[in-house]
Specification:
Layout lengths: L8 E9 L5 E8 L1 H9 L1 E5 L6 H9 L6 H18 L5 H16 L8 H12 L4 E4 L7 E5 L5 H7 L5 E2 L14
Antiparallel strand pairs: 1-2, 3-5, 3-6, 4-5
Length: 179
């Protein structure tokens, strides 16, 4: 649904947390054409691991003081990602940024990744993805890859033994669609 910014479409929010009770939400203006382009570059794989996100987050929170440098680095990546998505810069730059962000997130705590997740990530990269990230807190769930459209078939073949999902970005947010 078009927003007040001359027909631009908003699909993402940038949420900046200053404290537990002080945060700002800024809409990220992305045109329908850019959103379409982004969708064609996304590939989602279920790692096969279910976990309680709250347990993973609790472990990460205990180490916040030790991870200040990595967290600041990750925060600076937000601005870079915003710039890439809201411009006409190549989406490969965003994929490469996801790779750097994943490496930084993995370094926060040992509970974020494991051998299955690491193997899933490496398989995606070898199949042509520029980068990716584990969605949510870590420890399991879904791995999102960013890859050129021409790599999608190779990714599908590589992960034919796992559940994969098509990505459709929309204004209301995540939805489960049964077919």
């Amino acid at each position: 649904m078009p927003g007040p910014d001359h027909g631009r479409f908003w699909c993402f929010n940038l949420i900046e947390f200053r404290s537990e009770s002080d945060f700002t939400v800024t809409r990220v203006p992305i045109s329908p054409a850019r959103l379409d382009e982004l969708e064609r570059h996304l590939f989602l794989v279920f790692t096969g691991i279910k976990r309680k996100a709250a347990d993973v987050v609790a472990q990460q929170l205990r180490r916040v003081g030790e991870n200040t440098a990595q967290l600041r680095e990750m925060r600076s990546m937000v601005d870079k990602g915003y710039d890439i998505l809201t411009s006409s810069r190549p989406l490969q730059e965003f994929g490469e940024l996801l790779h750097r962000a994943w490496e930084a997130k993995r370094s926060l705590d040992g509970c974020i990744s494991n051998s299955i997740i690491d193997e899933t990530y490496e398989r995606g990269i070898k199949a042509g993805a520029w980068g990716g990230k584990l969605l949510g807190a870590g420890g399991g769930g879904f791995m999102l890859f960013m890859a050129p459209p021409e790599a999608q078939l190779k990714l599908a073949s590589e992960f034919s033994d796992q559940q994969t999902l098509m990505i459709k970005l929309n204004a209301p947010g995540s939805q489960i669609i049964y077919s």
